[in-house]
């Protein structure tokens, strides 16, 4: 039986191709001139990576210019793990931070395009998606780098962290707008948790110290990813002052969070965090279906859906009283929250998420949600602001949608969720993780 992470919408593609002058239905706005790039795991033919998260990273790019779709191409990122021909089973942290898969997200900062994975160094790629090499910011980065850094919209700084399965378990980093690593600060946590994302506000960083931990015995077995749920670990959110590094911890109901939507400070100075929450049971089911295991035994091939009970949730953290309030914002399973990144860390009205076959937009002001079916498996919807934006949701959403073994880049009006254009891609793009829009300078 082919494992769940190697078949259906997750099935890898076998090669690298390119195509020019892609068919477009609808009208691509001329100002969408740049590149959409999406990252995801793509084991080579014959490889069994043991877990969806462990396949070699492959970038898929679509070049748009002046209303046309000029090209599509896909490229594996040539990490040392890729070029050594090794399977991608283990975290790199602590040994060789360049021996990773770089399969999770892609960003651009101070002119560099970086493919990211949370257990190692970023890999720089060219605008044409060819690998330049591992990036440690001039030797200053000595930990892994999360795939979910946050750009402060006021300062242009890139805030991020690295976690490791040996001490230091958690390190906070700050990259200047010019791309210089100017701060690295160790943060005390009880153990090696799988910390996939974090949040920022104007004055704080929010840590997710949750009970999915690295397991040395699973690592020795060299199968799947060596992380498991641990009831004994507890669950905490931490609020760290960006200026002084002081962390205040808040116990919360045990849960897991892969992805943060946004955080901000409210009028009373409380820190409000919106994120997609998994209950212990929904985490175990999801992790098992992706090829991992809650028990140390590789999970059975199950559904390939990531969306098993993951729902939008809000934590309100009262720094004075030391109390955390929790509330569910919806009961619809969603994932991959995005927003207008000009609002990162600030009060924001809209979050965009995806359900299995739809884009779902949340309005924090009214509490309403809008659902736009896409007709296929729907990837993360990247928000692209309009040049003349007057409202937070003036812009577009870009998502790769796959149905009947064919993929398209769908462009929606972010305000109405009405389709604007569909770019037909020359091949099926496996369901993956995160993308970005890199406008021409
Ligand atoms: Fe992610």
Ions, cofactors and other ligands present here are: fe (ii) ion
Q: According to CATH, what is the class? A: Mainly Beta
Classify the oligomer: single chain
Tell me the number of structural domains: 1
The percent range for strand residues is 35-45%
Instruction: Tell me, briefly, the overall form.
Output: globular
CATH architecture: 6 Propeller
CATH topology: Neuraminidase
Radius of gyration: 20 Å
Assigned CATH superfamily: TolB, C-terminal domain
Number of helices: 3
Mean pLDDT: 93
Distance between the termini: 48 Å
The amount of helix comes to: under 10%
Give the structural class: mainly beta
Major sheet description: 6 strands, antiparallel
Structural commentary:
The protein is mainly beta and 441 residues long. It has a single domain (4-439), classed as 6 Propeller (Neuraminidase), CATH 2.120.10.30. Helices cover 5% and strands 41% of the residues. Strands 2, 28, 29, 30, 31 and 32 form a six-stranded antiparallel sheet that branches. Strands 1-5-4-3-33 form a five-stranded antiparallel sheet, with no helix packed on it. Strand 6 and strand 7 (112-116) form a beta hairpin. It is globular. The protein starts with 17 loop residues before the first strand and ends with a strand. The structure holds fe (ii) ion. Residues 104, 147-148, 196, 258-259, 433-434 line the site of fe (ii) ion.
